[in-house]
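re the bet — no i am not wrong, look at it urself. input seq straight from the record:
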Amino acid sequence: MPASAFHGRLLARAIGLVVVLLLGGCASTRACEAGLSASPQYETEGCRFRNAVNPEAKPSQEGWRIWSRFFFGKKEGTVPVDAIPVRPLTQAQLAALPADANHIVRLGHSSHLLKLQGRYWLIDPVFGERVSPFSFMGPKRFHAPPLALTELPPIEGLILSHDHYDHLDVPTIAYLKDRVQRYFVPLGVGRRLVEMGVAPERISEFDWWQAATHAGVQLTATPSQHFSGRGLWDRDSTLWSSWVLQVGGQRIFYSGDSGYFGGFAQIGARFGGFDIALMENGAYDAWWPSVHMTPAETVRAFGDLRGKTLYSVHNSTFDLAFHRWQAPLAELAALAQAAGIDLATPEIGEVLTVGVPRQNRLWWEGLR
């Protein structure tokens, strides 16, 4: 690389780091939000949510070191050279899916479109080009969504796990704000949606273990081990959660983002196991071991949950860590085969019908 190009890239990264720091500083002065202090997860001193006590939790590097590594560290193989396979999806194909079953469509990363007993739901939908506070910089998606926002069917419910940019996307919410019947979010995240133009009466906020029923789906917000924030000084001002969906006699688990903790066993015991578990598998690193799971920890958590099918999420769409982009999938597939686990690694746009046997394809093999 020519010296001028190298120095230009270095300068751009430095400017980006300063901008992120300044953005976070804008949120540094705030009072505790009314109504949150009743949560057992909330600390009024500091106005922050906290994770459950976990004796196995491993310490992470300090935030400034992690940010510095992101901007200046060397990466290899974290972005695909070859095209990620995408199965285009049409409204006609969605309409043809049987209304007496539960279907899951992978949109990319942790984003999913679900057709549950004939009605459509979204989980952590991100259709934007970048997961960043800025439209001109930040992790850029590897592939297009399998269908456009404008082609989505009417959405009955939208579920969010937390407020990070790769799960709560401003362009997506801006388009959907009046096109979703009801939003289901952890405590504090409702304020984020209102700021994006969503009417407050469409939003339901949940603490861990709180439940509701909507359109034939029983939803329960369940614990996870993570953190929240959209700037550097609003960390943990909103809650994070996993989710349980019970519909049509089946149980679906979605981990959201989480490190490994004892809560998975607690959830598995309380609900008696799951027909399918959408489990985080990607963006892990030894520098932040308690907020994302390695593939081995994902398998361990799946066992705790008493799941039947392990469905891999949180990979293959954005460059958010330092492992090679294929690593989460390849390592999980090897572990699942050794343990005799029914694994689902669907292509982007692929439809999985819960409880129906399928041939799983290791679609990333051979791709650079």
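see?? The first helix runs from residue 3 to 25. told u. also The chain has eight helices and 16 strands. so pay up
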